[in-house]
Design a protein that fits this description.
Number of helices: 7
Order of helices and strands: HHHHHHH
Distance between the termini: 107 Å
Shape: elongated
Number of strands: 0
Mean pLDDT: 82
Amino acid sequence: MAQITHCYTCFSSQENLLTSWLGNLNQLKDILDHGRLKVDLISEGFSPVIKLGETWQRASEFLVDIVKYAWYSHLIDESFRQNTMLASFNRVTHEAAIQQFREIDRMSYDGNKAFLVSSYNEIIEGMETVGNSDVGSQLIFLRQQRKYKEKAN
């Protein structure tokens, strides 16, 4: 009779355990995923990272950032090693070329602006010499706008 009671207690505690697992399936899945990930990381040579994650109290705050930093540092080093163009990149020369381009672009913009103003003035003067009265009010308005622009510059 004692064995039957003992087995009933075993089944009862197992039922309670299984019921609690059923209520927390997401956590159980996370535990299984963690186990699989740990095995994969060990096979890829990341045992020191796992050990650090399991023993360092602040690993949850900083370990991901440290691993990302190490990964990107490795990628940069590999990129420089494999790509001679990238390895010979000179920031100072690159920035000087950018500055030269900006200056040429600004000069081109200023030249085009001066050309447009000159063309505009020629058109206005041509309209004035024609003496067309229909254009009179428009010319007055355009002259005023031109004066405002000249004062602003």
